[in-house]
Amino acid sequence: MDKFLVYASSIIVVGSPIWFYGGIIYLFRKWRHYRELATAASAKTNNTTTSSNNYATSSGESSQESSKKQPPLSQEEIQQSSLDYEKYQRLAKRYCVALITVIVLSVWGPHRSRKVGEFLGVRKWRLWDAWLNYVGYTVLHDKGIESRTPRMNNPQVVDNDNDAILAFVPHGIFPFALAFSCLPQRGYEETWGVFRPVVATATKLFPLVRTFIAWMGGIDASRSAVSSALNLSDAVGIAPGGIAEMFETYPKSGFHRNDEAFRVRNGIFKLALKHNRPIVPIYCFGATKMLRRVQLPAFIENLSRILKISLCLFFGKLGLPIPFRQRLMYVMGKTIYPPLDIESGELDEQAQEMHHRFCDEIMRIFENNKDHYGWGNKSIRLV
Questions:
Q1: Cα separation values, 349 from 65, 207, 356, Å
Q2: Could you list the residue ranges that cross the membrane (predicted)?
């Protein structure tokens, strides 16, 4: 049952741009088809009436000219044309209403609300437990001083830093590390607690994904939206590598299949300084192996960055968008605190200093835990 739920949800959700936009095209074509039929039926009825009048007044014309004129339709045929017109017009209106409804609900709708998600209990759905059972899920806490301790055996949340920004590395083709940490209740209730995920604007192109994210209180990856959430004292989780990190790994030229890479931009640290929030570095082993990517020409990568959309050709099991079964191991590192004295004139320097500390901590917890995961032959680098 778990595999069925995972496979079905993968195809439905990940494939949503195909069937959703394909459905819109289908509705549009059906509307246009019936509109044209209605127009043709209307024209046929009107032409028949005109022809009947002309035919009745053509007695003075020659027989040769009269033979060229088509005789008028019978009363039954005229009535049938009228019925066809009404039927096609009715069907065209139905498809038009369906098309407008789908488009409006995909852009805006009362169903896309955090309160709706709470009402539906979306985080408690059986589907998410099926995903955790499918991939396997372990959380370790590595402070660097004492030995690793299983985080799930300790209900304390992030050393009481409830206002910390949770930074999940790596991003991967799909941010599985971020998704599994905030969706299943079993995933977060004994580890880092409930938080709002920061997601790329491009997720709006995925109708079902966008709805689920809205139900979880997802935050757009713009600086203003994240800043507003931090002003509300909301707990926030983010995959700071973003779309750019997705392309900086194997099979790109210069990378080996045993290379792991991560990229972290300074924006997250500037926000942490602005709102005086600590950052918890979290590395998720296995997140990059759940899907595989086909290397495309370099201009596709550049176009993706410009459009802020991941134009990426990827595949999973059987060539479908079904993730490979991969055990995930989260390792939480030492919390990165902002300096006690935050100077506005030194914001860039202080953000850069936090950036260095964060990257060093990610590398430390990777090297310290890779043997435990079975990745002793792998290496990691900052790109």
A1: 94, 40, 11
A2: 6-28, 91-109
